[in-house]
Amino acid sequence: MEAPIPQVLQLSRHCAKTHAFLDKEMDLFIQSGVSIKFVKDQEPSKVLGVGFSVTWKQNPSYEIVGANVRDWHNAAAELAAEWPHHDEKHLIWRDLQYQHIYDLSQRVLTQSRKPHLVYLAMLVLSPEIRGQDSLSDKFLGQIPQEDTHSIMVQSNFRGFDKTVFKSFPKTKLVDQVKYSEEELIVNSDCRAFKIIDHLDGIRFFAQL
């Protein structure tokens, strides 16, 4: 199954603007130095999965907004609804989604008073191994738990929460929104997130 939010935004569409946006997004994670590629032991050229992460420094010049994820996402939905170019509405929302994540990371750093934060964004797995908890454990386990940085993890499935708590016992919930509370409309009069309401919602956990 495709990851929930990309499924909602239809990021796999054949669209030059979407491809360019995703290329920029992937460059952020690939050049971060903390993303991880998993390969098959006996076949190193075969990629089984990629854990996308990024690290941010505490930014004293950044003015924290402090809005919760539900309000931020639905403000983004309003801006997307008013955007004049229909083929860019999903990208407007996606860009603002990442702005919330950065804002939340700065809030966490303010609380922890640590110089850096590692954000574990997503784990993309080959269809043949999806549903295996071992690789999720390995992904989260690759992040060293040191006093030099905070850790923030995004969970898009309720089932992933247990993996987060297993890897980071001291973690706490810092923000959340149910998919049923998401108001984005992209290609019809229906809420875009309605198709994944049953998956509960997005949760952000942080280990300060």
Detailed description of the structure:
The protein is built from 6 helices and 6 strands. The protein is an alpha+beta fold and 208 residues long. The protein has a single domain, classed as 3-Layer(aba) Sandwich (Aminopeptidase), CATH 3.40.630.30. It is globular and about 45 Å long. The model has no long low-confidence stretch (mean pLDDT 88).
- Radius of gyration using CA atoms only: 17 Å
The end-to-end span amounts to: 32 Å
Helical content stands at 25-40%
Helix/strand-derived category reads alpha+beta
* Overall mean confidence score, pLDDT: 88
CATH architecture: 3-Layer(aba) Sandwich
Low-confidence stretches: none
Q: Tell me the number of structural domains.
A: 1
Q: Say which CATH homologous superfamily is assigned.
A: Gcn5-related N-acetyltransferase (GNAT)
Tally of helical segments = 6
Task: Profile the largest sheet.
Answer: 6 strands, mixed
Give a nutshell description of this structure.
This protein has helices spanning 4-9, 16-30, 69-82, 89-112, 133-141, 161-167, and strands at 36-40, 43-57, 116-125, 149-155, 172-178, 201-207.
Map the helices and strands.
Layout: H1 4-9, H2 16-30, E1 36-40, E2 43-57, H3 69-82, H4 89-112, E3 116-125, H5 133-141, E4 149-155, H6 161-167, E5 172-178, E6 201-207
Parallel strand pairs: 3-4
Antiparallel strand pairs: 1-2, 2-3, 4-6, 5-6
Helix pairs in contact: 3-4, 5-6
Features of the shown structure:
Aminopeptidase; 208 residues; single chain; alpha+beta; 6 helices
